[in-house]
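dumping this here before i forget
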Amino acid sequence: MSLDTRQCDAFLAAAETGSFELAAAQLNVTPSAISQRLAALETALGHPLLIRSRPCRATAAGQRLLQYLRRARLLEAEFLAGTGAEHDTPVQVAIAVNNDTLGTWLLPALADFLAQENMAIEIILDDQTYTYSLLEKGLALAGVSSEPQPMRGCTVQPLGVMRYRLLASRAFKRRWFPDGFTREAARKAPVMFFDRKDKLQADFIERRLGLLPGAYPVHYVPSSDPFVRSITLGLGYGMLPAQQYRDGLETGELVDLCPGEYMDVPLYWHAWRVQSPLLERLGQRIVAAARGELGPD
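structure:
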């Protein structure tokens, strides 16, 4: 059998917008037409493709189809751009990255590349331990992850290591840790977490002091620059990567609460084994930039 283009377009629009109504508006048809085309595609493939929730979500079979359609759409767009057709329309590429990568070395690495290439990127943010699943779900075509094993059909390249240290402002250290980073002091001092997926601080505190989450107060600040600012302002203490703490340590604005101790987070670039030349060039630029900026693997 061959896939029906209109049915696939309906599925892709519904999966990406999360709504039959929005998909209908995108394709200039009725929601009923989206539903009928999707039902016909599911019947033809013999699997349910979308969970009819709000927003609707791809099933396991739908995720595999979403992966295929996004890759096929990228190859088609790149081919048309190469022939001169739709030359003014940038090729859209979704990549999954963690917040600290986006907040430090990624954008400088992409600036010149995007200025030269006919590409528009969609950056999907998540914790480095979760970005891998965005590729599995077909939501991204490539990405940065802490997962060293490639997904089936994908390749993986080491990028290097982001080194994190436990830091605080000088005033915060004087107030909460005058006698050092002790178990009793840590029970009372507020610690900064990026969000509820962020395990760096919890893992370090458990390893160093044996305290489990819930044994100490936590502030959640889910944005990279405000997270750093919160620590320098003395709202709490937390783990920062070298790319963000260097200047603060040099000026004395920040102090290391556990000198000589750190946590290394290795990062990897995941991409499909069969990919478009444009995505391959993007990967090469990101890998080269990361290896110049991050520590050795």
